[in-house]
């Protein structure tokens, strides 16, 4: 075997061209230098960031803690936090990409600085990351953390599977990050329509990166859905009937049902596309009997429920926010549950509205159009339910509430444009234009992102034991709202002027004023991101002053606020008994909060498992090997994955016991602290005197 | 087409459209860009429907804009307004918040149903004159317009008599594209191996911007064309001119046309000059159906057989992808 043969086997199709700066070295034109420098800078950031993390962990000797407290932990709270960390890192990257795209279009009249291929990678990674590696991990993380606490459970039903879900998502995210260093990524958009993504049009590694990143994520999300649904069905505390669950748990349930049914079509679609590309199947090519429209149907059979997977948990968060910060019961609880369920069911009946323009008969289009508009009914009901929740309440304009109010106003605009798009005859005009881009950002930024950020602000003290800094928090919230409006309202106008989405440049001077305003909006959004970072940094520095050890800084209503902050591993020393909705608020009203349990018992908790992190690594390596045709790596990593799964089945000690004595000590110490802590009224909620114990409510939150 | 729309939204529509595009007017020409300034009956009906839906939807949207700030202000913490922390249900309000949106959607659904049928792009348009048949083929990154009755073809230039509606058949010889002339009417996908249909008409002579709105690679943003509605006499002149001065679409030419290139690149590759560079005469019958079938297009064309002729459009030589 010659050296060349060996290298072919060892490196697959990896060569110098994969390096982001290679093209600009070979052909130093201005365009290559500009684009090459941008990618090289981004790749350096990835590499340096990874190196810095390794160096810092080594320097502070945290490898052991990282491994045993975090990576191998199967505690739903820690896994939830890790999900959110992944989401925030990816959020930062995708926002920066968005800013580049806005900047390009702001100068895009007859040119700009980005090459068309590079712009294609930008919108593809931006969309893929925002959906699969920002939104999904963020909402999964929040549900992971909050839902078991709210239903009075100690953990999810399948804690190790939870860790594997995280691992697969993280592996997919890592794959996308690596695609910055070993380029290129796909230019086929987040929906990856064939035949553009077929090997005959895009033979390079880009589409394969996209396929495997999305596949890893979709497998993880399917398992997450199963895990959440089973947990809600089986692990509720005694007395926690389905109709006593906080609304957030209902939305979590609907989302997980949607995940179970909607993720598999995506996995199937990407798997079939992979078969087309790797083994020359012809599922989605027009020759030999394939049909690209099969892909489009499969993709949107996932894709439309997906948008409700994203939005429903945010609706849940907003329900908690409106009721908590209005000091009032949630208006129309049953109506909200019914509305949520309606949305979940209807979401499977509308996928065709993503391709009204395919040329099918008007009856089909009209039926799907009306089904789409019907979703507007339960959604409208929710909006009014939240307004009525504030009605005759005591509304406190905290940071989560700023996000929630921004959402309320902006979301109805997105709803209105959604109704417009649901009309096939109008869709024929605005489909594939920036109007559509503005619409779905109008749903997902104020909807999903504001919801998740509101949840992050509200539950952060629960997770880490101290409140987040206020000033930069408000700045971030207002900058998000203003930035969103500046960045996306112009896109509505551009879409109405016929500007297609995904265009790197344009020749119509009429577009220019709008793209410039949108570019300014992107700057404001960048400032919002910076504010979030500042807020986090200052919060870390001020953490001692802002501690809330008693654990109820916002006068909360559901069970998670009945625990200390941060929450002990076992969540509740004794599983609570629930007798009504808003369980903790009722305890506080009756003066029965912070009770000493009659008896402490040993608590059995799931033991740490290395399976999650092992599958993260092997999953990543398999995907990486598939992308670059490193077959030896695929086989090795595949064998290692199987081996790890088999080895896990031989592990005898899958649980650990926390002694009753230890539980007693921890809990009694906390109860003493509760007794010593002065209660604060709601007007001092944002001051350092708020140690997490609300003043005894006189008829709710009024003091 | 337009007589299905009630008169009120029409007037309201014009007024609102005027308001909406006002900022874009500042020194720019937008007349051929948008259905909000429609140049044909389909686009006009779409514009009216657009504003009608907005007007009806505002019934549920406006109260949110108005009441949210009022509620937040009136019931803000620290003020002595009524406080009912346990109040969480009212049957009467429930009827209202479920009923009104449902009613709105029901009304909108009626309009939706009617307009979807009325504006179905497959419907031939009512007209005293015969429609002009044009067959549209999408390539990377340009459009070929075949005039089967005239036996001519053009690239990125759609010329038609203003008094005749357009009856288009669309396909793609490459990845999926979406054929779109916003100021005239609907867009419809052009897909490889399939034929879709689209009917458009212009109110009068004019020049309208057309585009592909479905991303198809690095030349996507350049895939614009102009559609020109001209007088019948001018159309005859145009056809005559192309027949006389257009170039032959022979095998080597088609080979280049079928490749991945933008219009300027194509013009350069064909050594073309002037207006007639990308106009073709003597187009054989059956070219369009041969392209749709993915069969031997070359067999129809004159000229030397190109050795690297492809069996199907999906096995194209790669350009630019590493």
Please, could you describe this protein's structure?
- The complex is a heterodimer of chains A (about 700) and B (about 325).
- Chain A is mostly helical and about 700 residues long.
- Chain A has two domains: about 1-60, no CATH class; about 60-610 and about 655-685, Cytochrome c oxidase-like, subunit I domain (Cytochrome C Oxidase, Chain A), CATH 1.20.210.
- Chain A has 21 helices and two strands.
- Chain A has a two-stranded antiparallel ribbon.
- In chain A, helix 9 runs parallel beside helix 11 (about 335-345), helix 16 (about 470-495) runs antiparallel to helix 17 and helix 19 (about 610-630) runs antiparallel to helix 20.
- Chain B is of the alpha+beta class and about 325 residues long.
- Helices cover about 35% and strands about 20% of the residues of chain B.
- Chain B is elongated and about 90 Å long.
- Chain B has helices spanning about 5-25, 40-75, 90-120, 230-245, 250-255, 265-270, 285-295, 295-300, and strands spanning about 130-140, 140-145, 150-155, 155-160, 165-170, 175-180, 185-190, 195-200, 205-210, 225-230, 245-250, 280.
- Chain B folds into two domains: about 1-120, no CATH class; about 130-300, Cupredoxins -  blue copper proteins (Immunoglobulin-like), CATH 2.60.40.
- Chain B is built from eight helices and twelve strands.
- The model of chain B is unreliable at about 1-15, about 20-30 and about 310-320 (pLDDT under 50).
- Chain B starts with 6 loop residues before the first helix and ends in a 22-residue tail after the last helix.
- In chain B, helix 1 crosses helix 2 and helix 2 (about 40-75) packs antiparallel against helix 3.
- The interface between A and B is large, with 107 and 104 residues.
């Amino acid at each position: 075997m010659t050296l060349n043969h060996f290298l072919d086997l060892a490196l697959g199709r990896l060569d110098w061209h994969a390096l982001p700066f290679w093209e600009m070295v070979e052909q130093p034109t201005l365009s290559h230098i500009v684009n090459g420098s941008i990618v090289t800078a981004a790749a350096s950031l990835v590499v340096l960031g990874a190196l810095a993390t390794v160096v810092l962990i080594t320097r502070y000797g945290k490898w052991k803690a990282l491994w045993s407290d975090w990576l191998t932990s199967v505690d739903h709270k820690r896994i939830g936090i890790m999900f959110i960390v992944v989401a925030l890192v990816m959020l930062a990257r995708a926002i920066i990409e968005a800013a580049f795209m806005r900047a390009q279009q702001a100068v895009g009249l007859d040119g700009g600085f980005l090459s068309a291929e590079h712009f294609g990678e930008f919108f593809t990674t931006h969309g893929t990351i925002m959906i699969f590696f920002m939104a999904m991990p963020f909402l999964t993380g929040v549900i992971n953390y909050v839902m078991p606490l709210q239903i009075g459970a100690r953990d999810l039903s399948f804690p190790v599977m939870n860790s594997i879900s995280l691992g697969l998502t993280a592996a997919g995210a890592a794959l996308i990050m690596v695609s910055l260093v070993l380029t290129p990524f796909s230019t086929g958009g987040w929906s990856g329509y064939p035949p553009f993504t077929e090997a005959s049009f895009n033979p390079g590694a880009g589409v394969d990166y996209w396929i495997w990143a999305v596949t890893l994520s979709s497998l993880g999300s399917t398992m997450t859905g199963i895990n959440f649904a089973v947990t809600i069905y089986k692990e509720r505390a005694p007395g926690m009937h389905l109709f006593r669950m906080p609304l957030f748990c209902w939305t979590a349930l609907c989302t997980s049902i949607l995940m179970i049914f909607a993720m598999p079509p995506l996995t199937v679609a990407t798997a079939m596309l992979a078969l087309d590309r790797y083994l020359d199947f012809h599922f989605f090519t027009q020759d030999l009997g394939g049909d690209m429209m099969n892909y489009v149907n499969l993709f949107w059979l996932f894709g439309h429920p997906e948008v409700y997977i994203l939005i429903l948990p945010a609706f849940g968060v907003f329900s908690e926010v409106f009721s908590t910060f209005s000091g009032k019961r949630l208006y129309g609880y049953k109506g909200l549950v019914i509305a949520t369920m309606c949305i979940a069911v209807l979401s499977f009946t509308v996928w065709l509205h993503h391709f009204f323009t395919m040329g099918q008969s008007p009856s089909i289009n009209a039926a799907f159009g009306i089904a789409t508009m019907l979703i507007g009914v339960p959604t409208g009901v929710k909006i009014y339910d939240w307004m009525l929740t504030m009605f005759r309440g005591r509304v406190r304009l905290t940071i989560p509430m700023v996000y929630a109010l921004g959402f309320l106003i902006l979301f109805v605009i997105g709803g209105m444009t959604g109704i417009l798009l649901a009309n096939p005859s109008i869709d024929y005009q605005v489909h594939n234009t920036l109007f559509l881009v503005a619409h779905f950002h109008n749903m997902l930024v104020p909807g999903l992102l504001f919801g998740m950020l509101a949840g992050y602000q509200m539950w952060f003290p629960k997770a880490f034991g101290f409140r987040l800094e206020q000033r930069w928090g408000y700045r971030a919230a207002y900058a998000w709202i203003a930035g969103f409006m500046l960045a996306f309202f112009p896109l509505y106008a551009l879409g109405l002027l016929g500007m297609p989405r995904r265009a790197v440049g344009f020749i119509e001077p009429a577009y220019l004023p709008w793209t410039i305003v949108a570019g300014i909006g992107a700057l404001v959004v960048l400032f919002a991101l910076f504010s979030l970072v500042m807020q986090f940094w200052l919060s870390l520095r001020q953490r001692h002053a802002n501690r809330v050890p008693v654990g109820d800084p916002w006068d909360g209503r559901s069970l998670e606020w009945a625990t200390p902050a941060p929450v002990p591993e076992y969540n509740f020393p004794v599983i609570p008994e629930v007798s009504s909705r808003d369980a903790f608020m009722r305890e506080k009203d009756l003066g029965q909060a912070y009770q000493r349990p009659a008896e402490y018992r040993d608590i059995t908790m799931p033991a740490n498992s290395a399976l999650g992190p092992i599958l993260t690594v092997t999953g990543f390596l398999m995907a990486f090997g598939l992308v670059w045709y490193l077959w030896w790596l695929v086989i090795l990593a595949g064998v290692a994955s199987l081996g790890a799964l088999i080895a896990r089945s031989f592990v005898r000690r899958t649980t650990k016991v926390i002694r009753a004595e230890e539980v007693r000590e921890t809990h009694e110490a906390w109860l003493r602290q509760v007794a010593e802590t002065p209660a604060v009224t709601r007007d001092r909620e944002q001051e350092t005197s708020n140690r997490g114990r609300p003043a005894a409510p006189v008829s709710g939150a009024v003091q | 087409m337009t007589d299905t729309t009630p008169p009120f939204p029409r007037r309201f529509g014009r007024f609102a459209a005027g308001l909406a595009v006002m900022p874009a007017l500042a020194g720019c020409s937008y007349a051929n860009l948008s259905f909000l300034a429609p140049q044909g009956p389909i686009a006009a009906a779409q514009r009216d429907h657009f504003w009608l839906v907005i007007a009806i939807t505002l019934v549920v949207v406006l109260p949110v804009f108005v009441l949210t700030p009022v509620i937040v202000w009136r019931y803000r913490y620290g003020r002595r307004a009524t406080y009912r922390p346990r109040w969480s249900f009212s049957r009467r309000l429930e009827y209202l918040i479920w009923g009104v949106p449902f009613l709105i959607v029901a009304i909108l659904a009626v309009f939706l149903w009617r307009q979807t049928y009325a504006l179905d792009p497959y419907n031939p348009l009512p007209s005293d004159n015969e429609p002009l048949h044009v067959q549209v083929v999408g390539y990377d990154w340009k459009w070929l317009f075949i005039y089967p009755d005239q036996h001519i073809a053009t690239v990125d230039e759609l010329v038609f008599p203003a008094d005749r509606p357009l009856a288009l058949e669309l396909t793609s010889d490459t990845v999926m594209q979406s054929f779109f002339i916003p100021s005239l009417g609907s867009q419809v996908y052009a897909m490889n191996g399939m034929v879709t249909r689209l009917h458009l008409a212009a109110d009068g002579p004019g020049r309208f911007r057309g585009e592909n709105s479905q991303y198809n690679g690095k030349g996507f943003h350049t895939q614009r064309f102009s559609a020109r509605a001209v007088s019948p006499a001018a159309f005859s002149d145009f056809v005559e001119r192309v027949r006389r001065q257009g170039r032959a679409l022979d095998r080597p030419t088609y080979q280049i046309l079928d490749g991945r290139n933008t219009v300027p690149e194509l013009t350069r590759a064909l050594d073309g000059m002037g207006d007639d560079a990308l106009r073709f005469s003597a187009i054989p019958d059956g070219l369009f159906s041969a392209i749709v079938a993915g069969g031997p297009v070359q067999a129809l064309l004159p000229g030397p057989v190109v050795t690297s002729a492809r069996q199907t459009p999906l096995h194209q030589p790669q350009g630019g992808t590493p």
